[in-house]
């Protein structure tokens, strides 16, 4: 049937794989946004910059750091960067939360959005000044080079790894927040922090760690994106609007909604590129408009 439309099964499968990969990044990034908004009520516009930071730190560690400190042979490989970059970005985000965001929790959401938007512009501007806007390549780690051939289709191991790792991280995060005692404390802290603090729980520490972990998830996505996309100072700003659309469609603050919607919209975007390429760049936003008209809280969200 598809061949009658001039579409080969190989092209369709290839676009489905690309859509699933993009959807994995959408899911991982929107998950971090949903965690921060759902538990802290902060619309974190620095998420795109933190995604860029993860990729940039991985690239700097592999290609630049050794020269900077006079040890040219020093290279921080992909798997080490996958641990270190989120830790660095998470620590940086904890400083932001402690020094700036905590002053705005009692104010309207708009103030947090404006602050994080300004911080995103500052971080992106600094890296544009230091490294420019031209893309830098990051090699696929040796362990994940090559691919699997299924008929006429070639499936790169690294892309399969990205899908698997993203799904695993999303599931573990969802399970931790929804099914563990500490996750219950986090949710309770957003509903009635004064009562929880009266019971001896350090609510400010929980809030700080939640923001740090949410931002670290963006850095994880950045490191995983580095071998697929060009590492550049503007890579976060190119993606964050789409990710916000994903979060709105899934429901602001809905962990499961962000994961499911991110993966689903990535596949929809990939299919759109096959059947109607001209609409692929706007398909997610068209879906967002339709969802908002029918269900303003999002597919999985609830009215606050």
Protein model, in words:
The structure is a single chain. This protein has helices at residues 9-40, 47-63, 65-68, 78-99, 109-131, 157-179, 181-191, 193-198, 203-225, 237-250, 255-275, 283-294; strands at 147-150, 153-156. By secondary structure, the protein is mainly alpha-helical. A hairpin with a 2-residue loop joins strand 1 and strand 2 (153-156). Helix 1 runs antiparallel to helix 11 (255-275), helix 10 crosses helix 11 and helix 10 packs parallel to helix 12 (283-294).
Q: Beta-strand level of the residues, as a percent range?
A: under 5%
Distance from first to last alpha carbon = 46 Å
Poorly predicted runs? none
Count of beta strands: 2
Number of domains: 1
Shape: globular
Discrete helix count: 12
Mean pLDDT, all residues: 86
Global Rg: 20 Å
Strand count, sense and barrel status of the largest sheet are: 2 strands, antiparallel
N-to-C SSE series?
HHHHHEEHHHHHHH
Strand order of the largest sheet: 1-2
**Helix/strand/pairing category:** mainly alpha
> What is the share of helical residues?
55-70%
